[in-house]
Amino acid sequence: MLDLSKIEANRLDLDVSEFDLVVIVNDVYAMSSMQAKNKGLTLLLENNLGPSFWTKLDLIRVKQILINLLTNAIKFTESGFVTLHIDHTEQGVCFKVSDTGIGMTTAQIENIFECFQQGDNTISRRFGGSGLGLSLSQQLAIMMGGYISVESELHKGSEFIFNVPCKQYPPAKVASEAAVSENKTGLVGRVLLAEDHSDNRRLITRFLKSTGLEVISVSNGEQAVELCLSEFPDIVLLDIQMPVMDGLSAFELLKKCGFNKPIFALTANAMEGEAQVFVSIPQAGGFGMNLQRASQMIYYNNDYSLQNRLQSEDRA
């Protein structure tokens, strides 16, 4: 809803950068594979772009659209398969997400990109969700000069087609390790911080920003889950005890949704019992880690990990 409000107020700007689109597609596929596997579905990837396709678009928004389309396809498919297909077009690139799910009627298709629409109320009650995802994805696609269309047959399945204009560029030169090491004060990445205590939230945010990180801060687990699935931070820091939804519940829900970025628990009371509860959970990133140690775990675009330049401080 935050992004939709910004779009309506003309305050959402695209952040265009040069990146390898194939890397992003593979990342989204890997992220969605767990969600599909948990439902007993087969997730297929058909890549006709080749091993690499460097272009200039808003990386985060492209990723956001693809994750939303795949998440919906998996959600509304009880059996069979979901396919992510990507190919060249004369204007740029075409993504197709097809499924063997419940499908839609013609009347449902006409309203599918409207806010708070999910075909009908029965679908909303059965599958959950607010119906905002497709509306936001369509608006983001239009901002990038593209468009999302849909073809569907009731009880047979649906296919969402996302066309976006773009050019292919020669592979970008990746900064050398020497160049990275010269930047001894700045880290790169986005952190989502969930902490209900306002003073702690401000203090932790200030520290993280001082290292060069971008910080998204919220006050409860429910907000954390919503923004994780729309903003896709590189790392998540969750306070364990929060109102509305605690950190452990938020963690479990994110994993069910296929979110695979590192998640760390923060607490001022790192008691042995609390620690054991969290570290016993598969895929949990860590518990009660100091912020310097946690911040070095940021990953940028799933390709380049930060230098472990804080190890000496941990040993001190």
Automatic annotation (TrEMBL):
Residue ranges constituting the Histidine kinase domain according to the UniProt record: 1-168
Record organism: marine sediment metagenome
InterPro entries in the record: CheY-like_superfamily, HATPase_C_sf, HATPase_dom, His_kinase_dom, P-loop_NTPase, Sig_transdc_His_kin-like_C, Sig_transdc_resp-reg_receiver
Pfam families: HATPase_c (PF02518), Response_reg (PF00072)
Protein name: histidine kinase
Gene Ontology process terms (BP): phosphorelay signal transduction system
Enzyme Commission numbers on file: 2.7.13.3
Record keywords: Kinase, Phosphoprotein, Transferase
UniProt GO MF annotations: protein histidine kinase activity
Catalysed reactions, as listed in the record: ATP + protein L-histidine = ADP + protein N-phospho-L-histidine
Response regulatory domain segment(s): 190-305
Gene3D superfamilies in the record: 3.40.50.2300, Histidine kinase-like ATPase, C-terminal domain, P-loop containing nucleotide triphosphate hydrolases
